[in-house]
Predict the structure.
Amino acid sequence: MQLKKLAGAACVVWLGANVAVGQEVSEVESLKRQFKQLQEQFEKQLQAQRQQLDGLARQIESLQAAKSPAASSAAPVPAAPAAASVPAFTAPPASAPAVAAKPWSAAEPLRLSRGPTFIELSLDALMTAGGSTASDIDKLQLGGHDPKQRGFTLQNLETVLSGAVDPYFRGQANLVYQIDSAGESRLEIEEAYAETSSLPGNLQLRVGQFLTDFGRLNTQHPHAWSFVDQPLVNGRFLGGDGLRNLGARLSWLVPTPFYSELFLGVQNSHGETAASFRHDHEGGLYAGRPHTVGRLQSGADFLFSPRYQASFELTDAQTLVVGASAAVGPNASGSDTRTEIVGADLFWKWKPVNHSGGFPFVSWQTEVMLRRYEVGAFSNAAADTDGSGVINGSEVDLYGDQTVRSLSRERLVDYGFYSQVAYGFRKGWIAALRGDWVDARRGDYERRFGLDLDRAARWRISPSLSWLPSEFSKVRLQYNYDQRQQLGVDHSVWLQFEFSLGAHAAHKF
């Protein structure tokens, strides 16, 4: 009986063991199948990622070749992982899909390309409506792109063409169309230049028509301004259309731990785009004298413009950019008279690390300038043909008051500044405030013949509010409180609208 019980128990144990072994074998087989499936999925994903890496590497290589062969050698294309470093896998079938090309976005310029060369197209329209209490708005507003009439003004219709010429040069052209206060259309080439992309030693050469590297604002186009109009000191010293001309500019990126760059420009010194230099002021008087441009005679007739600029990261959220500039060249008041303009500029910006689309932010920008303008001796005594001491009706009355004047050679000194603060308080909304001031030391000709309103003291306060529905449009409301010496106070209100087709190239910080 005991043997039967023992035999039964042994059978139960044996059957239980077989079931447990069978279950263990079954579980092991299941785990093996899962492992194999996961390994196959991993290898498929690895193949797809390798294809993406290869595609991106080809794109990087192509873009670097288009930009600069030096850049390609300095920053090699990242290689895809070596085969020995990953599990072996079979080559993808010929029918495997290629990496999809990145679709075009409205945030990118329209690009036309052929191999390593390309051209990008964009258009920006800037228009303003408003008015002023001033009866002479054209003299109140000094900038060539400023609104100068009551009603509507097309300030700027700018077409930009830029791109890679070849592996050694890139080019850019800014074509500007305007309608002036008389309703006349005007088309001009604001900038058109080529610059190198592969010079050694951190050097770059620019050749063509370009805005002179003087201060911060002079190199910016109107759509990049924080206000509707140009600061007073820029309009008075650098001209309504900014200081620009044909020439060449060499820049050197100094090898310092922070951004540091030196510029030297050499440009023609004549024309309305060099207002403080060899400009005839459209046949009118300036500083009490007529101006005659004459002809180029030597290298001393060129405009030279050195500049130094540096940038510092004060904290993760704060950046400071400082610069110093000069512009030296002849002016048209005499055969050997010269102009010197010096300036200093500062830009500070706070933007938190956790910003959203660039907001919120606070920025502060200011520029101060001093101009020394040498004027030659002049006399209109030759117009007094009958020796009467007055200019009679049959003679050329240059001053319009029948007086005979003799002006001595002298050096005139003018100075001024602007300072502006902008606060991006929420995404798409910017409140800003700008203060302007210009003044001058009175010249000998003013002490004898009265105040020259072109050089008289003046200040202005301008608050503005901007709304950016997107990166392609902007609406701005601005008020100006103007105080002009001997002319009193004027009030102006301007509503500006901007739209862009195609994204502009990035501007300097």
